[in-house]
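Priority: medium. Attachment 1 of 2:
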Protein backbone atom coordinates (compact mmCIF):
# COMPACT_ATOMS: atom_id res chain seq x y z
CA UNK A 1 0.00 0.00 0.00
CA UNK A 2 3.00 2.27 -0.69
CA UNK A 3 3.52 2.90 3.03
CA UNK A 4 0.73 5.46 3.27
CA UNK A 5 -0.18 7.10 6.56
CA UNK A 6 -3.92 6.91 5.95
CA UNK A 7 -6.62 4.28 5.42
CA UNK A 8 -9.48 6.56 4.37
CA UNK A 9 -8.81 9.52 2.07
CA UNK A 10 -11.52 11.85 0.75
CA UNK A 11 -10.85 14.10 -2.23
CA UNK A 12 -12.78 17.36 -2.46
CA UNK A 13 -13.04 20.51 -4.54
CA UNK A 14 -15.56 22.53 -6.50
CA UNK A 15 -17.35 21.18 -9.56
CA UNK A 16 -14.77 20.43 -12.25
CA UNK A 17 -11.79 20.22 -9.89
CA UNK A 18 -10.80 16.73 -11.05
CA UNK A 19 -11.79 14.76 -7.95
CA UNK A 20 -12.91 11.57 -9.68
CA UNK A 21 -9.92 11.52 -12.03
CA UNK A 22 -7.47 11.81 -9.16
CA UNK A 23 -9.34 9.21 -7.07
CA UNK A 24 -9.33 6.77 -9.99
CA UNK A 25 -5.65 7.12 -10.80
CA UNK A 26 -4.59 6.96 -7.16
CA UNK A 27 -6.64 3.82 -6.64
CA UNK A 28 -5.06 2.15 -9.67
CA UNK A 29 -1.55 2.89 -8.44
CA UNK A 30 -2.18 2.09 -4.79
CA UNK A 31 -4.55 -0.87 -5.12
CA UNK A 32 -7.19 1.03 -3.19
CA UNK A 33 -10.94 0.68 -3.15
CA UNK A 34 -12.59 3.69 -4.77
CA UNK A 35 -15.81 5.21 -3.47
CA UNK A 36 -17.44 7.26 -6.22
CA UNK A 37 -20.23 9.69 -5.54
CA UNK A 38 -23.44 8.35 -7.07
CA UNK A 39 -25.00 11.38 -8.70
CA UNK A 40 -25.79 10.56 -12.33
CA UNK A 41 -28.98 8.67 -11.46
CA UNK A 42 -30.35 11.44 -9.26
CA UNK A 43 -33.59 12.51 -10.99
CA UNK A 44 -33.54 15.94 -9.32
CA UNK A 45 -30.13 16.99 -10.66
CA UNK A 46 -31.11 17.98 -14.23
CA UNK A 47 -34.35 19.48 -12.87
CA UNK A 48 -32.35 21.59 -10.42
CA UNK A 49 -30.17 23.04 -13.14
CA UNK A 50 -33.30 23.96 -15.11
CA UNK A 51 -35.17 25.46 -12.14
CA UNK A 52 -32.91 25.82 -9.06
CA UNK A 53 -35.39 27.49 -6.73
CA UNK A 54 -38.07 24.87 -7.30
CA UNK A 55 -35.92 21.76 -6.96
CA UNK A 56 -33.05 22.75 -4.64
CA UNK A 57 -34.51 21.34 -1.43
CA UNK A 58 -35.51 18.02 -3.02
CA UNK A 59 -32.07 17.74 -4.60
CA UNK A 60 -30.15 18.41 -1.40
CA UNK A 61 -32.25 16.02 0.68
CA UNK A 62 -31.87 13.27 -1.89
CA UNK A 63 -28.09 13.74 -1.95
CA UNK A 64 -27.93 13.78 1.85
CA UNK A 65 -29.73 10.44 2.05
CA UNK A 66 -27.81 8.84 -0.82
CA UNK A 67 -24.37 9.90 0.40
CA UNK A 68 -25.09 8.79 3.96
CA UNK A 69 -26.38 5.42 2.78
CA UNK A 70 -23.34 4.89 0.57
CA UNK A 71 -20.66 5.96 3.04
CA UNK A 72 -22.17 4.17 6.02
CA UNK A 73 -22.31 0.98 3.97
CA UNK A 74 -18.80 1.29 2.55
CA UNK A 75 -17.13 1.97 5.87
CA UNK A 76 -18.85 -1.03 7.48
CA UNK A 77 -17.53 -3.42 4.82
CA UNK A 78 -14.06 -4.42 5.95
CA UNK A 79 -11.74 -5.51 3.14
CA UNK A 80 -8.51 -7.16 4.18
CA UNK A 81 -7.20 -7.04 0.60
CA UNK A 82 -7.98 -3.34 0.05
CA UNK A 83 -7.47 -1.64 3.41
CA UNK A 84 -7.09 1.76 1.73
CA UNK A 85 -10.27 3.53 0.61
CA UNK A 86 -10.27 6.67 -1.54
CA UNK A 87 -13.52 8.60 -1.96
CA UNK A 88 -14.06 11.28 -4.59
CA UNK A 89 -16.13 13.29 -2.14
CA UNK A 90 -16.38 14.25 1.53
CA UNK A 91 -19.74 14.05 3.30
CA UNK A 92 -19.42 17.67 4.47
CA UNK A 93 -20.01 18.77 0.89
CA UNK A 94 -23.70 18.16 1.62
CA UNK A 95 -23.70 21.09 4.01
CA UNK A 96 -21.79 23.42 1.69
CA UNK A 97 -23.88 22.79 -1.40
CA UNK A 98 -27.06 23.10 0.63
CA UNK A 99 -25.91 26.42 2.04
CA UNK A 100 -25.20 27.59 -1.48
CA UNK A 101 -28.53 26.41 -2.92
CA UNK A 102 -31.20 26.70 -0.22
CA UNK A 103 -33.13 29.57 1.27
CA UNK A 104 -32.34 30.57 4.84
CA UNK A 105 -35.37 28.74 6.26
CA UNK A 106 -34.69 25.60 4.22
CA UNK A 107 -31.02 25.59 5.18
CA UNK A 108 -31.85 25.90 8.88
CA UNK A 109 -33.87 22.68 8.69
CA UNK A 110 -31.28 20.98 6.52
CA UNK A 111 -28.44 21.89 8.89
CA UNK A 112 -30.33 20.27 11.77
CA UNK A 113 -30.72 17.07 9.79
CA UNK A 114 -27.05 17.11 8.82
CA UNK A 115 -26.08 17.56 12.45
CA UNK A 116 -27.98 14.41 13.40
CA UNK A 117 -26.56 12.31 10.58
CA UNK A 118 -22.94 13.41 10.28
CA UNK A 119 -21.67 12.11 13.67
CA UNK A 120 -22.71 8.60 12.64
CA UNK A 121 -20.09 8.54 9.87
CA UNK A 122 -16.38 8.02 10.27
CA UNK A 123 -14.42 11.11 9.30
CA UNK A 124 -11.66 10.70 6.68
CA UNK A 125 -8.12 10.27 7.95
CA UNK A 126 -7.16 12.89 5.37
CA UNK A 127 -9.11 15.29 3.16
CA UNK A 128 -7.32 16.26 -0.04
CA UNK A 129 -8.77 19.55 -1.28
CA UNK A 130 -8.12 20.54 -4.90
CA UNK A 131 -8.13 24.32 -5.11
CA UNK A 132 -8.20 25.94 -8.52
CA UNK A 133 -9.47 29.13 -10.10
CA UNK A 134 -13.06 29.54 -11.21
CA UNK A 135 -11.82 30.06 -14.77
CA UNK A 136 -10.06 26.70 -14.75
CA UNK A 137 -13.07 24.98 -13.19
CA UNK A 138 -15.38 26.38 -15.89
CA UNK A 139 -12.95 25.18 -18.55
CA UNK A 140 -12.99 21.68 -17.05
CA UNK A 141 -16.79 21.69 -16.85
CA UNK A 142 -17.08 22.68 -20.50
CA UNK A 143 -14.47 20.09 -21.51
CA UNK A 144 -16.25 17.12 -19.95
CA UNK A 145 -19.51 18.20 -21.59
CA UNK A 146 -22.24 17.21 -19.17
CA UNK A 147 -25.24 19.00 -20.63
CA UNK A 148 -26.90 19.82 -17.32
CA UNK A 149 -23.72 21.52 -16.05
CA UNK A 150 -23.25 23.97 -18.89
CA UNK A 151 -25.33 26.70 -17.26
CA UNK A 152 -23.20 26.82 -14.11
CA UNK A 153 -22.04 30.39 -13.60
CA UNK A 154 -18.76 31.82 -12.39
CA UNK A 155 -20.60 33.44 -9.48
CA UNK A 156 -22.01 30.07 -8.38
CA UNK A 157 -18.53 28.54 -8.37
CA UNK A 158 -17.04 31.55 -6.59
CA UNK A 159 -19.63 31.28 -3.83
CA UNK A 160 -19.08 27.54 -3.51
CA UNK A 161 -15.31 27.92 -3.37
CA UNK A 162 -15.60 30.53 -0.62
CA UNK A 163 -17.85 28.23 1.40
CA UNK A 164 -15.31 25.42 1.09
CA UNK A 165 -12.48 27.68 2.22
CA UNK A 166 -14.40 28.99 5.22
CA UNK A 167 -15.47 25.50 6.22
CA UNK A 168 -11.98 24.05 5.91
CA UNK A 169 -10.58 26.78 8.15
CA UNK A 170 -12.92 25.56 10.90
CA UNK A 171 -11.73 21.93 10.72
CA UNK A 172 -9.11 22.14 13.46
CA UNK A 173 -9.43 18.42 14.29
CA UNK A 174 -9.16 17.20 10.70
CA UNK A 175 -6.04 16.77 8.58
CA UNK A 176 -6.47 18.66 5.31
CA UNK A 177 -3.99 18.52 2.43
CA UNK A 178 -4.81 21.72 0.54
CA UNK A 179 -3.42 21.39 -2.99
CA UNK A 180 -3.08 24.55 -5.05
CA UNK A 181 -4.03 22.60 -8.14
CA UNK A 182 -4.11 25.21 -10.90
CA UNK A 183 -1.25 23.43 -12.68
CA UNK A 184 -2.18 19.91 -11.59
CA UNK A 185 -3.01 17.72 -14.60
CA UNK A 186 -2.21 14.08 -13.94
CA UNK A 187 -3.53 13.01 -17.35
CA UNK A 188 -1.17 15.34 -19.22
CA UNK A 189 1.65 15.02 -16.68
CA UNK A 190 1.57 11.49 -15.21
CA UNK A 191 4.62 12.23 -13.09
CA UNK A 192 2.43 14.51 -10.98
CA UNK A 193 0.54 11.46 -9.77
CA UNK A 194 3.78 10.15 -8.25
CA UNK A 195 4.19 13.50 -6.49
CA UNK A 196 0.69 13.22 -5.01
CA UNK A 197 1.41 9.69 -3.81
CA UNK A 198 4.57 10.92 -2.09
CA UNK A 199 2.48 13.58 -0.36
CA UNK A 200 0.13 10.88 0.93
CA UNK A 201 3.06 9.18 2.65
CA UNK A 202 3.57 12.16 4.95
CA UNK A 203 1.97 12.68 8.33
CA UNK A 204 0.35 16.12 8.51
CA UNK A 205 -0.67 18.37 11.34
CA UNK A 206 -4.37 18.84 12.00
CA UNK A 207 -5.82 21.76 10.09
CA UNK A 208 -4.83 23.02 6.64
CA UNK A 209 -1.51 21.98 5.09
CA UNK A 210 -0.88 23.85 1.80
CA UNK A 211 1.04 22.46 -1.17
CA UNK A 212 1.41 24.20 -4.55
CA UNK A 213 1.87 22.43 -7.89
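Attachment 2 of 2:
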Amino acid sequence: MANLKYEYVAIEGVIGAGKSTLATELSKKLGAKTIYEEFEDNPFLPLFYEDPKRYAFQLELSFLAARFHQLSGERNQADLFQPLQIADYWFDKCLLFAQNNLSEVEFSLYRNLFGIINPRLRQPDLVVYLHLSTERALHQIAKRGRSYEQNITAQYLDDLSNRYLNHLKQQSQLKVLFLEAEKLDIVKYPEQLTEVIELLKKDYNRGINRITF
